[in-house]
Design goal:
Helix content: 10-25%
Protein name: Protein CreA
Low-confidence stretches: 4-19
Number of helices: 4
Keywords: Signal
InterPro entries: Uncharacterised_CreA (IPR010292)
Mean pLDDT: 81
Number of domains: 1
Strand order of the largest sheet: 1-2-3-4
Number of strands: 8
Radius of gyration: 18 Å
Strand content: 35-45%
């Protein structure tokens, strides 16, 4: 793949992910005299294929001059928590992607080569969605990861009364 094509794909990936997440807040972790501080950012995104499932992702964001210009590489640290916020109906497409999962969120964590992504799996035996967050690089990934599960339960007071 040419460098130009790789750059175009990276930009498209960055802008599509940015449209799907919403920053909830952040905390500073290291003071930087020049540029923004290092921080932990909390973002929320809705699963694009499953209505009424929202995931909250916390991730490290590098500050300083390079971070302020978008040139720094963020660490692979991240955590995730997903919840059911209303009635969930799973499509056949979601149910069929059990073993290999489906990427539901991707965020650029370096200028080109590193991304943090969330992959959804479906455990039909337990009727549960499983969300895995991890970071990868074109050359070398990271084993750092976190999981969150969303058991698909009946929703509303009528369902709870049964």
């Amino acid at each position: 793949m040419s460098k130009v094509m790789l750059g175009v794909c990276s930009l498209a990936l960055f802008f599509s992910a940015a449209l799907r997440s919403e920053q909830i807040g952040s905390v500073d972790t290291v003071f930087k005299l020049l540029g923004p501080d290092h921080k932990i950012v909390i973002e929320a995104f809705d699963d694009p294929e499953v209505d009424n499932v929202t995931c909250y992702l916390s991730r490290a964001k590098t500050g300083g001059i390079k971070g302020g210009l978008g040139l720094a590489e963020d660490t692979a640290d991240g955590a995730i928590s997903c919840i059911q916020v209303g009635p969930v109906t799973l499509s056949d497409k979601v149910k069929s992607r059990k073993a290999d999962g489906e990427t539901v969120f991707r965020k650029r964590t370096s200028i080109i080569f590193k991304t943090m992504q969330v992959v959804r799996f479906y455990d039909d035996k337990r009727n549960t969605l499983v969300y895995l967050v991890y970071s990868d690089k074109v050359i070398d990934g990271s084993p750092k990861n976190a999981l969150s599960t969303v058991p698909i339960i009946p929703w509303g007071t009528e369902a709870l009364a049964k």
